[in-house]
Amino acid sequence: MDGQIVISATDLVKDYDGVRALAGVRFSIVRGECFGFLGPNGAGKTTAMRIVCCYMPPTSGSASVLGMDVTRDCSAIKARLGVMPQDDSLDVDLGVLENLIVYSRYFDIPRTTAQERTAALLEFVELSDKASVKVPKLSGGMRRRLLLARALINRPEVLVLDEPTTGLDPHSRRAVWDKLAALKAEGTTLLLTTHYMEEAERVCDRVAIMDSGRIVTTDTPKALMEAHGGNLESVYLKLTGRSLAD
Asked: What is the pTM for the complete model shown?
């Protein structure tokens, strides 16, 4: 990490039909860092992530990614981001390799380049032997790894992951964590949302604990656990009065 800020947000507010999903959120993320939003469903983590990804504008406040404004420079930001959604948005009519090739067209990547990248990505996520297999025949863990590969097709500087291991068994979850650690080692900046305390402890350099649309505190997992005692789940309970399972 070189200390250069690549994502910043100031006083972010987001309202949905009179409900305040974000209430004045501030955070910054430096290059090469893995930063996590930790909280249960409804805490505001996905809303913050969607604003960063230019999927929705804030009601008020500001945010920038790689020095660009999320309300004015959406196309330029999306070209340099990789996004792994929580929902499985793979094309079930296509095979593993075809999913990556088709997705590469959104970034105007030449076909020869896309084929080279696809081969390397399938090797990275350990799906080379499944290249021709249709998506419905993949296990849940394989589908999550394919979504990760798809998010990397444009060689993003920042990778955003919304609940990357939701629904996976422990072995598949650890396999995804290993891939994220490898990406971070290569200098990729990671932003993820999670409600798994083990995931936050193992993957994140810093964690923002979120509750009811606010960031309660931000620090390293180690510092939070030393300051409040116990693991991150007990820290969350002490700071918010709520469980991560709520």
From this structure: 0.92
